[in-house]
Amino acid sequence: MPYTNTHRGARISPTKARLVADLIRGKSVDDALVTLMMSKKRAAVFMKNALNAAVANADQAEANTRSLRVSEARVDEGPTMKRFQPKDRGRAHPIMKRTCHITISVDEA
After folding, report:
1. Residue range of the domain that includes 39
2. What is the H or E stretch that residue 8 is in?
């Protein structure tokens, strides 16, 4: 039975977060945490928090936390905040502030 956690509305673009999700998918939880701690990517902080919460969910259900693996690491697109940057001669350029939903599932190996 997979134990899942979702971080909704993370303020990072889904494209950048998917690069980090690809790093940890299929690894054991200990290896994934080490990988996230050593990563320089900003999305690694969001992933680490979501992974720790998924492990806590498994611990709450009295699963064996030593044999957990990351069975699913998915990043979906969230709502986009639309802003405008004023430019010369009355123009405005759009700024898309993208968000994402990070879903991490861990399962016993």
Report:
1. 3-108
2. strand 3-10
Q: What sign does the CA torsion over 6, 9, 15, 16 have?
A: negative
**CATH number, domain at 37?**
3.90.470.10
**Considering its fold, how many domains does the chain have in total?**
1
* 3 state DSSP class of 6: strand
For the stretch 31-76, pLDDT in tens is 999 999 999 999 999 999 999 999 999 999 999 999 999 999 999 9
Whether 36 and 48 have beta carbons less than 8 Å apart is answered as yes
Angle, to 10 degrees, between the axis of helix 43-60 and the axis of helix 14-24?
50
